[in-house]
Amino acid sequence: MKIIMMVVLSGILLSGYAQASDQKSQKNVKALVQEQTGYEVKTMLADDQEIEHLLSQPLTEDGAVAIAFLNSPVIKAQLASLGISEADMREAGILRNPTLLYKTRTSNEEGAKRNNEIEIKQDVFDILFWPLRKKIAGTRFKASQYEAAHQMTDFIKEVRLSYLEWLTAMHKQALAEDHFKAQEAALEIARRQKEAGNINSLKMGEFQAIFQRAKIEWLKTKQKTQMSTERLRTMLGLRPKQFFMEETVQIPDLPKENLDIADLEKKALDHRLDLLMKRQEIKTLEQSQNLAGLGFLPEVEVGYNQESEASGDKLKGVVVEGQVPIFNHKQAERMGLKASLETFRHQLDAMEQQALLEVRLAYQSLMTSREVVEAYKEAMPVYQQMIKETLYEYNFMLTDVFHLLESKQAELETKEEYADALKGYWALRIELENAVGTKLDFDLVEPPMKKQEDQPKIMNQEHNHGG
Q: How many H-runs (helices) and E-runs (strands) does the chain carry?
């Protein structure tokens, strides 16, 4: 019985780690995500008050990410999935149960006593190899943490891109609305000029056509904004009655930064989660190969046997039972592990080369995009000066409203292209951070792009040219 108690107690002690909470694994994943994205992962069961507070303010990128962490079912599902991987780890680290045998027999003679036999056995090498199996399970579980963090990081990237798309749509809608109002004012001026006999029906028709086109473009931008809003709301996990403010911050202008391609490549090799996950899988295979290398050892069960004879005598002693590894000593398993290990190492080399390629392409695209934005910034004052000069001529009746509106239309198109260029730059910067595998710091040196530049307007201008 002492042997039985020793086996039971050893099983309890050796498998006690399985009672650990999954809070530590979630904390590890959150730390990985924060390193990758620069955002602190805050997850709560149902913090509606915090979400409503974020929704009551103009929505920023930080606010959108914070809502996603608190509310998105995608984030919650990834964190919950750690429980599945942790359960597998615990199962792999628990000792197998001992084998219990109980027999009771009687003879057919009248008054014969019962013969009882009890036997308990435990696999010895299951206990000896337990630390190594536990280590393999822990390594595999760490790989699953990398995978969960990788999925969450990809989702946060999509949230940031969706927010950027929505922000740009809101900005372009505001530009289209300004243009529509200007055309509406111009149409009213044209009506008055038509009544005064200063323009004919053909010219009036031109103003009406331009006004209708401006209205159509404005409605199209409203539709795009609505679609972008719904996509962002879905990604943030908002309910039908939850909305964020339509008053938005402006698209950030170009930041001051000093990116070095060699440093970015080094960071990618050190921080990318897909590479860390593959290296962890290789480590798991190496540990499994070490365990399989002990396959020549037989499976041995050691236990205790006690038998009560009908005569009243008791027989007891140690039981040893095992296999003789003559034919199968895990040679096929070792061969498979060796091939898998070689395959995974080559895959890691290919993944590292692909990662470096992605970093270089993202970096080059970002630098080119920056040059495009800077070109638009140089062009904007030119269009503003053109409008100023055209308005000057208009005030002295040297040109008409139609030419002034043409100048404003050219400026509007340039502003929209400038907004798209800025969006493209920040989207590429997000892609570069994803390729590098960590947040890249920068400093804003200029104020955000203004929603409306201070410039002359034609809203209340009225001239009777030729009258």
A: 12, 6
Task: Kindly state the average pLDDT of the residues 322-334.
Answer: 75
Q: Give the global pTM.
A: 0.77
Q: Is residue 233 part of a domain?
A: yes
Residue 460: inside a domain: no
Alpha helix stretches (DSSP H) within 237-330 = 261-271, 273-292
Residue 461 lies in a domain: no
Give 182-234 pLDDT, tens digit per residue.
888 888 888 888 888 888 888 888 889 988 998 999 999 999 999 999 999 99
Note whether 137 and 261 are within 8 A (CB): no
End-to-end C-alpha distance for the chain, whole angstroms: 119
Any domain includes 60 = yes
Structural domain of residue 345, as residue ranges? Answer: 2-444
CATH number of the domain where residue 200 is located: 1.20.1600.10
- What's the total number of domains in the chain? 1
Amino acid symbol at 144: S
| DSSP string covering 18-40 | GG--THHHHHHHHHHHHHHHS--
Q: How many CB atoms lie within 10 A of CB 413?
A: 13
Distance between CA 315 and CA 197 in Å, rounded? 127
Residue 109 structure tokens: 């003679």
Cα–Cα distances (Å) from 161 to 65, 156, 168, 202, 431, in that order, read 11, 9, 11, 46, 9
Instruction: Kindly tell me if the per-residue pLDDT of 349 is higher than 90.
Output: yes
What pLDDT is stored for residue 374 in this prediction? Answer: 93
